């Protein structure tokens, strides 16, 4: 589903050069649930951004379902992201002035769907994450765990084959974190969704099928 071949990422300014990733070789199979672990600043989020086509490597190749995306322009990359990839972030990234329902509908605005179809899909995924009673609420009226459920609903509303989750439980207590993990596990098992999750929590990582560890931008195991 995702393949990285000899990927490097270097950030350059006029005075300094920083290597974020070096010689990353990684293959994620369809339906796999993979964790990425490592200390802060080791390149975990950079790796996730490259896998999600939010950033480009300085060298090396990235494939999504055998499509080598290195030569694709921004519009084509955006289309692939919208169709194939859902993102879940630690800080939710919800729009406070929009209702729960409107937040979840956002990815569908870029598709040729009627308002009725968008609403129907959004209500369906909100039911899946247990928030049917909160569709008219706003993010500021929700708990952290509920906000993350909204973020997951937004990520899956377009039926993506891949979910990339960057510390999805990082701002939550252990109980809420376990609930979010249960939702991700259910998506992986029941919908065969490929999930790559960055986490600092070894107890969560050990529930996934494989753990990749990074240190100073390199794979160590």
Topology at a glance:
Layout lengths: L1 E11 L4 E12 L4 E5 L6 H8 L7 E6 L2 E2 L5 H11 E5 L10 H6 L9 H14 L15 H13 L5 E5 L7 H18 L2 E5 L3 H4 L4 E6 L2 E2 L2
Parallel strand pairs: 3-8, 3-9, 6-7, 7-8
Antiparallel strand pairs: 1-2, 1-4, 4-5, 9-10
Helix pairs in contact: 4-5, 5-6
Architecture overview:
The chain is of the alpha/beta class. The chain has a single domain (31-42, 77-219), classed as Rossmann fold. It is built from 7 helices and 10 strands. The protein has helices at residues 44-51, 74-84, 100-105, 115-128, 144-156, 174-191, 202-205, and strands at 2-12, 17-28, 33-37, 59-64, 67-68, 85-89, 162-166, 194-198, 210-215, 218-219. The strands form 2 sheets. A 6-stranded mixed beta sheet has the order 6-7-8-3-9-10, with helices on both faces. The protein has a 4-stranded antiparallel beta sheet with strand order 2-1-4-5, covered by helices on one side. Helix 6 links the parallel strand 7 and strand 8.
What's the architecture in CATH terms? 3-Layer(aba) Sandwich
Percent range for β-strand residues:
25-35%
First-residue to last-residue Cα separation:
20 Å
Shape: globular
Number of helices: 7
Descriptive key words:
221 residues, alpha/beta, Rossmann fold, six-stranded mixed β-sheet, four-stranded antiparallel β-sheet, 7 helices, 10 strands
């Amino acid at each position: 589903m995702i393949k990285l071949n000899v990927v490097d990422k270097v950030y350059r300014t006029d005075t300094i050069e920083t290597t974020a990733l070096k010689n990353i070789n990684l293959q994620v199979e369809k339906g796999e649930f993979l964790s990425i672990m490592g200390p802060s600043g080791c390149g975990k989020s950079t790796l996730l951004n490259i896998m999600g086509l939010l950033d480009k490597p300085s060298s090396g190749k990235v494939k999504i379902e055998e499509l080598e995306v290195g030569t694709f322009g921004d519009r084509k990359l955006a289309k692939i992201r919208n169709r194939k990839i859902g993102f879940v972030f630690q800080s939710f990234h919800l729009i406070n002035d929009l209702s729960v329902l409107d937040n979840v509908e956002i990815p569908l605005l870029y598709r040729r769907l009627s308002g009725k179809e968008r609403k129907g899909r959004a209500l369906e995924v909100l039911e899946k994450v247990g928030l049917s009673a909160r569709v008219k609420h706003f993010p500021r009226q929700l708990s952290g765990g509920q906000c993350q459920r909204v973020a997951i609903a937004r990520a899956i509303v377009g039926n993506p084959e891949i979910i990339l989750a960057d510390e999805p439980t990082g701002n939550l207590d252990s109980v809420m974190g376990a609930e979010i993990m249960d939702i991700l596990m259910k998506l992986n098992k029941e919908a065969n969704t490929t999930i790559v999750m960055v986490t600092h929590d070894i107890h969560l990582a050990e529930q996934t099928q494989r753990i990749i560890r990074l240190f100073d931008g390199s794979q160590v195991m």
